[in-house]
Amino acid sequence: QVQLMESGGASVAAGGSLRLSCAGSGRYSNTGCMAWYRRAAGKEREGGAFITPGAGTRYRDSVKGRFTSSKDNANDTLYLQMNSLKPEDTAMYYCWWRHNSAGNCYGEPVWGQGTQVTVSS
After folding, report:
1. So what's the pLDDT on residue 121?
2. CB within 8 A of 61, min separation 6: which ones?
């Protein structure tokens, strides 16, 4: 079984930066597909960054140029560097993992418990 644990959420002023972490454990593999999602209060969950080994990283338009995701494979950790934060970035942020085969993500998705980011204006 794969487990994910996010951390790094906090309250910051608009224009500030945060770095979120997602630590994998259990049967986690750093070759899996990974993503960062977020859900703001009263809104649908939305994807922010999608990382597929061998296929690069794709970002949601609203975070392009401000958010960067990276992986530390030696420590089984995924990061999300968030700069120039805006109040509309306020949400619970989740990391997500699925098995990967030649760039195709498959299997039951695994979610972390989430970490709260609050950006004040």
Report:
1. 94
2. none
Tell the residue number behind the tokens 């990283």, with chain if given: 57
Q: What are the helix and strand counts (H, E) for the chain?
A: 0, 11
pLDDT in tens, 44-72: 999 888 887 777 888 899 999 999 999 99
The single-letter code of the amino acid at 26 is: G
- Per-residue pLDDT of 78-116, as tens digits, reads 999 999 999 999 999 999 999 998 888 999 999 999 999
CB atoms within 10 A of CB 119: 20
User: Of the candidates 49, 57, 53, 60, which has an alpha carbon nearest to the alpha carbon of residue 33?
Assistant: 53
